[in-house]
């Protein structure tokens, strides 16, 4: 029996192609997903990114789905949020083939139920894993069919309907697609808007020849920062490989934290629905719940990860949610994450006033932060326990374990240390009053983690 524990993650399936993932296994995964959702739907929508392995793997998955008697709607090349749009607008379960920001040798599958409802470890992935490991039962009935549907134009029109940029002043925006799916979606989404797009790395290439499609790593936005300054642009946008996350830099080429973007978009959403609930994960700046409350909203804290946030949004009726990793979730987008919609909100806010982006976002950036710092460790649990033991012995320290360790210090500084769901890493995020306090606390924690 195959052991899928290494590739079935908390909220997706991901692995090295040829070693952990191949067409035969993916066909079985398609069959297992079809069995899971058969009681709910008679068809599944499938999309894929630009990785070399994606067309073959998505076709194998479709073969598995149709072998169980369900139909497939193939939307072909797509960003992940475009797949969510298809799932929502067509009211079909979906499968997106992508490994997001991971290197070229990886691929994976993000699954959702009808209306883009998440499928995570506790909501279907474990069941799919068990079905494949035990052997997928054959189906004796009639095979399903595959039809193709292009939803790109409808996706773009839907986003533009949600954010009105018709009154915006003209803006010049540099967009770094990182050779990922942003190069496919941005030209259609931005068409006809008062925005001059300066494209960078729009050529679809799953080998990522210019830089990794992971804007969370500062080295991968260096080119964008330089180009924004060179062009005298109003802003810069960087998308990850499957273009569901968007990072923003201001007119100086300086990064705008995803927490500041979360606060900015939250206020815009609260203007439409006063008193609404806003979700923020536990790694976003503590400035986010402060600002939400000051504008009459109800902030709700949750753990990291799209399946958890979407579930909390459904439970609370939240209108918007944001993560430190630049995932942004909208009730009006079936509670799914779409960096493109967040980007349109930022540009609309910028275009409504005459000042620069740095001035606009300054009021949402109240504290200094470290950004995510990764440490490769042999034993995640042991290192985290060492940190917990050290800090719990100090006076006035508060610790919670909603997601990893969140440690609140008496002076107002705090940090979160959590294990990666996909790699042998511990991820550290630190926030404090100023850069010096962040540096000191970061060194304190890393001395234990790496000691």
UniProtKB/TrEMBL annotation:
Gene3D superfamilies to which the protein is assigned, alphabetical: Alpha-D-Glucose-1,6-Bisphosphate, subunit A, domain 3, Alpha-D-phosphohexomutase, C-terminal domain
Cofactor(s) needed for function: Mg(2+)
InterPro entries: A-D-PHexomutase_a/b/a-I, A-D-PHexomutase_a/b/a-I/II/III, A-D-PHexomutase_a/b/a-II, A-D-PHexomutase_a/b/a-III, A-D-PHexomutase_C, A-D-PHexomutase_C_sf, Alpha-D-phosphohexomutase_SF
One example GO MF annotation: metal ion binding
GO BP, sorted A to Z: carbohydrate metabolic process
The keyword Cell cycle appears for this protein: no
Domain spans labelled Alpha-D-phosphohexomutase alpha/beta/alpha: 8-134, 154-253, 261-367
NCBIfam families found in the cross-reference section: PRK09542.1
Name of the protein: Phosphomannomutase/phosphoglucomutase
Species this protein is from: Amycolatopsis decaplanina DSM 44594
Taxon lineage: Bacteria, Bacillati, Actinomycetota, Actinomycetes, Pseudonocardiales
